[in-house]
Fold this protein.
Amino acid sequence: MTRPIFLCSVLWLIPAMLPAQSPVIPGPQPSTLWIVPRSGLAEAPVPLTVKPVTTSRRTRWKTGMVTGAVILGIGGVAFGSGLCHGLSEEQSPHCGGATLGMGMLGAFLGGVIGGLIGGAIEAE
């Protein structure tokens, strides 16, 4: 049952794929930035100069990033330590890796979130 459907779909797609097999590929074209207008003058094309637009405003993204990283980093350390000690059944669990990992994750997420929030606040 599926073989005739597959065969029909392949035979239907072959004519659609044939134009894509054409060996005619257009070569590179000259840039429109360097075309000399036909005004009768034989001048060399002058390159266009682009002046940078300075419309950016000063924000507090760095302050927000540092603040968020510190706050959520400390929170991540506390959460990771509490989670490890709370879930452990041993008397002296080794929770350094989990605590450090949660602190690093909290610092990263806090930095990203704080940077985004600080980027929305304009500096004086």
